Amino acid sequence: MSIVTVQLGQCGNQIGHEVFNAICSDVHGTHGLCSKKENESYHDACKERFFSEEESEVPVARAVLVDMEPKVISQTLSIAARSGYWKYNDRSHFCQKQGSGNNWANGYSVHGPRHKEVIMNLVQKEAEKCDRLGGFFTIMSMAGGTGSGLGAFVTKCLRDAFPTSFILNHVIWPYGTGEVIVQNYNSVLTLSHLYQSSDALLVHENDVIHKICAQLMKIKQISFRDVNQVIAHQLGSVFQPTYTAEGGLHYSRNPLGDLMETLVPHPEFKMLGLRNIPQMPENSLPYSTFSWPGLIKHLRQMLIANAKMEEGIDWQVRPPQLGSSIPSSHSTNKPLHFNTSIANLVILRGKDMHNVDLGSFRDPSLYTSWLNPQDAFNAWKTPRAFNKYEKSASLVSNSQFLLKPLDNVVGKAWNMFASKAYIHQYTKFGIEEEDFLDSFTALEQVISSYTIL
């Protein structure tokens, strides 16, 4: 099944480009450990998901690019075309001459309705090119104007137009420092609206990725492109083909459906986080060796201690003894907070992955009591290495990982709202105070649901 990617705003278009680059680079890489047949079936499964072929025989990304300013889209189209490995469809993009000025309401209430027909026609054409449509993957920022406001509007339109298709929103969580004054408003409005339209939200936090660039990738002057490449590598590690059944002989044909079935057992819980190990500079890879037991041990501790990267993990955090109760105050404040999970997916790529012991992820004490641990944990595998890493493991988790940042954003936005700060900038575009209150209520319910896991 094919995935149509919808790239929204500057952030969404730049990350989307890096995602297709990472996927292409992986497919064209050398993987001597795999048989020719294995490589061919991997290549075919990847192409079906992400690319169509036109007369030129250069793979064309199944993507629609949307921005209210033309600069980023024209750069993205030309850089992709110059690569020679893949390109975008020249007619699958939409831009205007004026952005949304960091105003969510402008993107959602003005640009969205005004350009709905053109944008949805582009999406419809891309969907019709798929032999079998598996769903939509949208990429957007949470805090700006076009990406977040127009992105939330387009997601709602996708849900109305394709009610049975899966929608996964990839959302970039803004930096906590140096913030735009209204970013917390934009974030609250974005998340609450996506929660209604989307099947799941896969979140990357800018601060975390910045740390990975500095501490793991050893980058001195970190650019947006560096950050986007780390995000793209992590996304590729999840979306490239795998066997979803133990001892499977065929690559999964329904990546979004499999992801939802595995990780979203209840519509109240849609927040997904992603961790990927190892991550290091490319020039260090030839001198590094990794063992599966070591990678799995680190990944599990990253999960339970809510560590976002493998450096600086708190090894003191332990799962609670089954039968004991954790006081509710423990949920958000204490340093040894245990990160309770609803569902986890581990993806293993590389040699000898069939013999890896994943029993530690099946421990019932890791999970909420209302799900059978057998249903709460899944593993996908492939012997094919990913982007020059001989062995790599990814964890997609539906857990309490985002509780603190979410509570923080909602609290800051509420404090501004209580003093009526900047509200007029939204009301002039048709977003009323009741809309803010509805958004606060929706997200406070999400916080409450995750807190009591």
UniProtKB/TrEMBL annotation:
Gene3D superfamilies linked to this entry: Helix hairpin bin (1.10.287.600), Tubulin/FtsZ, GTPase domain (3.40.50.1440)
Compartments it resides in: Cell projection, Cilium; Cytoplasm, Cytoskeleton, Microtubule organizing center, Centrosome, Centriole; Nucleus
Residue span, Tubulin/FtsZ GTPase domain: 47-247
Keywords in alphabetical order: Cell projection, Cilium biogenesis/degradation, Cytoplasm, Cytoskeleton, GTP-binding, Microtubule, Nucleotide-binding, Nucleus
Cofactor(s), by name: Mg(2+)
GO cellular component: centriole; cilium; cytoplasm; microtubule; nucleus
Any one Gene Ontology BP term: cell projection organization
Location, primary (coarse class): other
Gene Ontology MF terms in the entry: GTP binding; structural constituent of cytoskeleton
Superkingdom of the organism of origin: Eukaryota
InterPro entries: Delta_tubulin, Tub_FtsZ_C, Tubulin, Tubulin/FtsZ_GTPase_sf, Tubulin_C, Tubulin_CS, Tubulin_FtsZ_GTPase
Keyword flag GTP-binding: yes
PANTHER family tied to this protein: TUBULIN (PTHR11588)
Function: Acts as a positive regulator of hedgehog signaling and regulates ciliary function.
Assembly with partners or alone: Dimer of alpha and beta chains. A typical microtubule is a hollow water-filled tube with an outer diameter of 25 nm and an inner diameter of 15 nM. Alpha-beta heterodimers associate head-to-tail to form protofilaments running lengthwise along the microtubule wall with the beta-tubulin subunit facing the microtubule plus end conferring a structural polarity. Microtubules usually have 13 protofilaments but different protofilament numbers can be found in some organisms and specialized cells.
Family per similarity comment: Belongs to the tubulin family.
Protein name, as recorded: Tubulin delta chain
Protein source organism: Eudyptula minor (Little blue penguin)
